[in-house]
């Protein structure tokens, strides 16, 4: 292989590693449930009892896992595989592959493995002019301190992953070993796929594994070891992916988890310390010049906190194995099949370790945000109290889809149910409440012929529309099947307050619903009135009634119209029998034909109308009057008839129409010079220049 080609290969992987070291974004993921806690300020010096998984410490020469030299005297640098088609949420698999390979080569051979931190350091130091010269490639390799570089790729196919790993000699670029494995994400997570690669590469590099070494590679890995490596890998992937904020919430969350495991504690602590250094440097000396940029960066961080934990809430899902009963036995005569039903229990439990991690990340954000002295100016004074994340009960919802299947994975029934949970914040302490247990019963299931009922089980298919395996892997929720539900959690110290708050909230919601209901009814009623005869009305009326003073009455008829609030009328009016009630013999009967016009404001219901209005009556008062001379002659009964006056009389009225019936009250204002003709002068002077004459009226209205 030519030197230029060798140089190109080495330069490519140098650049790839540098990109990783400086946080350049490539495919990576950030979602994984947490299972441990730590303090907000990690110490780079891990406990001496904790041994990192990726270590350069070598086993004794007499290791039981290999025979012979085991590759002693050689040094290898394990690089992160290249991503080919992986989604962001799957990027952690790249770091997981790297971590498992480092652990296997460290434990099962005498080859010196450069740990992850030193790989980055050496690759960064090698970025100098000598690497660009063809005749210095060997020198560059020696500078990095590695005899071999392990590299490769993880490619996503339509249904699985293709993991290819190969080992190149640093000095020549020649490939010393190369292997490819087809696998699933689960097989990468449980280390089984990567250990197939480890076995193949170790043997090709001349490491003779003993039976114990081969057995070690086939040993089932404990859940805690898997959780440790996955947490660390997710943190590395989240760190590589970046986020744009001052604090990388996802990376810090995962490193806090990894720090609590013995084999990953040291590396996680170092990563946290590096993140603290970067975050602190972003705040120093730039608050004035780059105030707006810092504001935006902090806004991203605060948003990231809520978004991350809304998508990774600290709750685990438990469900029991099903119990079944025959609800209807098969009928041999009719051939009707048997039917049965199953019941099981589901519930949520808060993950206390994950809650502590949330509190630790929250403390980190608050400490660094307060140190800026800009919290109030930037408008972050109420954060995080106002977050939806801490909205109390029923803030977080899990829509669960489950299937009943037999040992042959035949699906007999698919059902759905919902579980609710919530978080609350008080004095920077997070409290959790959730649905503790809910009984689920399937409807009757027909026992089809040939369907085996052995090994019936409940399997969770999807959570919030996401495949359950992916939901568990991405940290949406941890799913555990149990024989019996775990002991119910005691009420958190927020439960009473949460219940009271929920009661107030429900009451407020009920009041708001009632208000909306009434408003809707009002609008519907108003809309109905617009089409009713009362709202838009035209009609004729006939009525009459007595005056309450003056011994007179009236009759009127006419037309009215109206639309909505407005009303008007036009009609003829006749005053009857006006005379002086105190001196009935002094004047004769007086009639007053005329017409009236008026307008008003309407208020209406479904079958009634109230009108407040007024107008004018135009009429001429005439009648028979007995003269003084005639009245003094006892034997004379002649009367003199004459037109007394013409008058325009204003009036006010209140009218209530119910269906076709009308009742009301009207007040007329007669001028004194006219009114005095009806009554005695003393009465007129008593009321000044005008006289009020009030009346009641009733009648019928016919609307067209």
Report on the structure:
It is a single chain. This protein is α+β, with helices and mostly antiparallel strands. The protein has 17 helices and 27 strands. The protein has an 8-stranded antiparallel beta barrel with strand order 20-21-22-23-24-25-26-27. Strands 2, 3, 4, 5, 6 and 7 form a 6-stranded mixed beta sheet that branches. Strands 9, 10, 11, 15, 16 and 19 form a 6-stranded mixed beta sheet that branches. It is elongated and about 140 Å long.
Report the principal-axis shape: elongated
Please tell me how large the radius of gyration is: 47 Å
β-strand number = 27
Major sheet: 8 strands, antiparallel, barrel
Q: Structural class, please?
A: alpha+beta
DSSP strand (E) fraction? 25-35%
Average residue-wise pLDDT? 77
Lateral strand order in the biggest sheet: 20-21-22-23-24-25-26-27
Helix fraction, binned, reads 25-40%
